[in-house]
Amino acid sequence: MQQFWQWSGSDLISNSQRGILAEFLVAHALGVDDGVRTEWDAYDLRTDSGIKVEVKASGYVQSWAQEKLSSVGFDMAPKLSWDASTNTSAKEPARPADVYVFAIHAHIDQASIDLLNVNQWEFYVLGTPLLNQACSSQKRISLGALQSLCSKAVPFGDLGDAVEQAAGR
Fold first, then answer.
1. pLDDT per residue over 24-47, tens digit each?
2. Nearest to 94 by CA among 50, 48, 131
3. How many CB atoms are closer than 10 A to CB 92?
4. pTM for the full model?
């Protein structure tokens, strides 16, 4: 199993693995321990208080050789989602989570990257009603637009409170 993981998933800087790692970090911050991640569910996490959370990840540094840092942006398009608990698909595109956590791996020196170091990350938290109001059917959001909706990044240790507050609890 270790050889398979090393071969298939050890490049944590890659976009797909960085996204899964961001989900793991946010789950840890929220105290969500569902055992195994459910692939393709309508949202990424559900807190003990029932808040549905979608985690989106981005970063400046990529796995490949770069001439310049990447622009940070996030896909947040309304989707025809599938709900694993009911095995049903949505009839209309929507954002089914209650809260979005936008996670940016903000460290820019590739030689000293440690994606497990939460101090190298920035987290922005938005309630879905605010996201829907500001972005309607928009498919992507840039870092600048996100920062205009969120006045500041949330420290890792404060994510639980920020998610509860964004959900109106």
1. 999 999 999 877 788 888 899 999
2. 131
3. 6
4. 0.93
